[in-house]
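> example.struct
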């Protein structure tokens, strides 16, 4: 009887998880193109919505929090402070929502052929990231109008802040994308998380306000600021708002101008949270993907 050597073949359905995505770069590009082309399909304004939605959101928060509640009095250049944090929160919300719906939205492909299922959440995240770039461009232009001068430090903080958010969303996206196939309530849970995200980081207020109100519970402040999204938002604030001459020369100096106390430990803690999220997200995704085709 002829012996067949199976060593050159891969067992279907087994792989290295998210690492296999690098071997399917061509498919990843196709999925990214598909997600970006369908996002504003049959839309009159098209890509212009990438500017309209954050602009309306910014105006509402600026009028309510800045003018009515008077935060602009204690925060110089408050519009830039608000906008620099808001664009990063929008990145988190957009990418997490897209990743959660990625498997369900591509049910036809998932049912018919085998390919690393992680391609779908990653393609959704990258596709949503491309729609974040126009907001980042507007932020840079507005910052220049305020007198911002870019430096290596500010550029590094911007890149590091985006990297933290994208890695954090990758772990959460894998987790909720898998759950959303079996339990469609996962998408509703993500909607709640996206709502909380806007208020759980120092965008509509400052970290100094939280620090002052947690004087008797300092551990609570450290837990709160160790949120990867909060750490990334502070990096954006220091990259754009904190580098403005009018902010540094303000008298008295804003209480939130410097880094939060022990911020280095908060950054380390946020990296730990991201690593744990990535591991849990990948494990849950690998376990759930066995029944994706049946559940869809």
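> example.seq
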């Amino acid at each position: 009887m002829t012996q067949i050597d199976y060593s050159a073949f891969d067992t279907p359905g087994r792989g290295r998880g998210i690492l296999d995505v690098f071997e399917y770069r061509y498919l990843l590009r196709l999925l990214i193109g598909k997600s970006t082309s369908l996002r504003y399909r049959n839309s009159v304004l098209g890509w212009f919505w990438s500017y309209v939605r954050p602009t309306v959101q910014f105006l509402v928060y600026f009028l309510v929090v800045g003018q009515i509640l008077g935060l602009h009095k204690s925060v110089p250049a408050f519009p830039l402070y608000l906008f620099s944090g808001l664009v990063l929160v929008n990145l988190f919300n957009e990418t997490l929502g897209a990743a959660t719906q990625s498997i369900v939205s591509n049910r036809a492909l998932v049912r018919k052929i085998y390919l690393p299922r992680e391609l779908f959440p990653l393609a959704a995240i990258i596709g949503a990231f491309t729609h974040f770039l126009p907001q980042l461009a507007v932020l840079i232009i507005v910052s220049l109008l305020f007198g911002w001068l870019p430096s290596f430090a500010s550029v590094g903080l911007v890149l590091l802040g985006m990297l933290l958010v994208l890695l954090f969303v990758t772990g959460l996206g894998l987790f909720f994308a898998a759950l959303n196939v079996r339990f469609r309530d996962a998408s509703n849970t993500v909607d709640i998380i996206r709502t909380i995200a806007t208020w759980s980081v120092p965008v509509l207020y400052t970290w100094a306000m939280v620090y002052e109100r947690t004087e008797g519970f300092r551990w609570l402040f450290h837990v709160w600021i160790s949120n990867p999204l909060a750490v990334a938002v502070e990096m954006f604030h220091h990259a754009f708002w904190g580098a403005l001459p009018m902010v540094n020369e303000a008298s008295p100096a804003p209480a939130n101008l410097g880094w939060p106390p022990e911020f280095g430990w908060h950054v380390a803690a946020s990296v730990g949270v991201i690593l744990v999220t990535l591991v849990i997200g990948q494990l849950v995704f690998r376990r759930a993907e066995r029944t994706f085709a049946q559940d869809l």
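> remarks
The chain has 13 helices and no strands.
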